[in-house]
Every structure is written in C-alpha cells, then in structure tokens.
Amino acid sequence: MTDNNFIQDYIKAGKGVIAAKKLARKLTKPGTLFLEIANRCEAEIIKNGCGFSFPINMSLNEIAAHYSPPIDDQTIVPEKGLLKIDIGAHYNGYIADSAFTINIDEDPKLQNYIEAAKEGLEAAIQLFTPGVKLYELGEVIAQKIINRGLRPITNLGGHELKQYNLHAGPFIPNYKEKMHNQVLKPGDAYACEPFATSGIGKVENGRDAYIFRFVKRIKKNMSYEHLAYMNKIEKNFKHLPFSPRWIENNNLISKNKIQRTLETFIGKKILDKYSILLEKTREPVAQEEHTIILDLEGNKIVTTRE
Fold this sequence. Notes:
Blueprint (H helix, E strand, L loop, with lengths): L4 H23 L6 H14 L3 E10 L2 E3 L16 E10 L2 E10 L4 H20 L6 H14 L3 E2 L5 E3 L10 E2 L16 E4 L2 E3 L5 E12 L9 H14 L6 H6 L5 H13 L3 E9 L5 E3 L2 E5 L5 E3 L4
Antiparallel strand pairs: 1-3, 2-11, 3-4, 5-9, 6-7, 6-8, 8-13, 9-12, 10-11, 13-14
Helix pairs in contact: 1-2, 3-4
C-alpha cells in the first residue's frame, strides 16, 4: 500500500456502522422484536452504500457474543438487562466493526459494567499509536475494568482487520498477555473490544449457532443441488460471516432446505459455525468496541465513533 486511498474505504464503512448504531439505539425498546431491529439496522448499512462484514449480533446478559436473530426469531427486547449490539460493514472489503451495550432499564448496577468496558476501550484508544505492543493495550483495558470491581473476559479480544478478512491474525488481549507482542505500525486496522463481567471472566461455547462462514469449496460426493448451493453461498458472502436470514432474503435456497443444507455443509467442513458464547458462570457481560486505524503517516482514526 503506497497511498491512503484505502483509509477512505475504512472511513466509508465506519459511516455505515455509525448510521446503523444510531438506528439500533432508537429501535431498542422493551417488547420490540430482535428480528425487526436486525433487519432494519442491516438495511441501514446497505442504504449507506456498504456491504455486511457480519450479521448483527444482539447478545443479552450472560451471552457475550454471537447471538444473531435466526429466521422467524420471536425473541423480544426484555424489560431489563444488558443488550450488546455488535454491527459490521465493509466498503470495497475494508471493514468497520463496532459494538455498544444498552442498559435497558438504566439499572445503576448494570451501568457499572458498561462504564468499565467504555473506560477500558478509551484507555486503549489513547494508547493506540505506532510502536505500542498489543499486550500493552490489554494491560490498560484490564486495569480500567478491575478498577470498577469487575473482570475482563480473557478469552475474547480485539482482532486485526484486513480487506475481506474480519479476523486477520493478531489479537488484542483484554489483559496483559505478553505472547501478543505484535507492534502497531502505520497502515494497521484493528477492532478493539473490551468485555466486562462480574463472572470469572471466561466464555464457553453454547449449543446453538446462528452465524456461519464459508471456508472452502469441495466437489467430492456433492449432488448438483449442493454444488449449486455452495456456489451461491461463496458468491454472495465470500469468506465473511453470514446469517441464514440472508440466504432466505436473497432466495438462494428454499426456506425448508436452509437448515439441513447448513448442517450438511458444516459436516463437510465447507462452512464454519460461530457458536453463541456464554460467560462461564452465567454472569452479565458488557461490551464496547471501535475500529481504530493508523494511516500511512501513523495518524490514528477511530472510524466508528459517532
């Protein structure tokens, strides 16, 4: 990369995410269907000239991540709790990824979780400059969360972003873990995402998965029908995570065959699935996230800040 043109693409993706976040805040009221919020926020990304980098995540309380409304979901926003909304968009494959947590009934105790995650994120953004090691970001994140009597989730963290690649390699830990010693440099883009909880600070996979990703093509032991479905999934979603809702919305596979096809493709390792992630002790979790980039001169830009 010899010029900053790609930076404008990151910024454009960020504007799509900001518009969807604003809409999500407006729509999230007790009794509203998750599905309505998801469909309208995702439509807002398209309206802003961007594509999806992953399905909207709407993870409640002890679910830390990866709940995205399935087809015909009847889940509604409850009267109280912590609802994490994680939204992603891309422009020319350059990704913006941002999350925030809504304290549905403004419970002061739960607000502390949000403030802890926010303060951790802001401390990391302040430090985000060329020459800084990723674990140094983790150290300041953890300190802010611990200062509020909570714990960071240590097996979740931020991730490098590359063109059409949501999890591109290096990891921003949410505590001082020295193995993550990569150094920030001009041209880098990362999603930084602290999670704060009153639990033990670890997540485990839940039984269900609502988000999938195309991994590889295979030809062996595939019917013509399955080959056609595989081609459609790859063409429409590339290697970015997708929702079965999008398969239905785009009429790629008839509705009554979607679930069975996904299960077959997971079995054949054509697809990966993203299981919901649950805090191990089932304590509430708050998440805050921004996409931060360094241009080729090393200037910092937070593309998803409203």
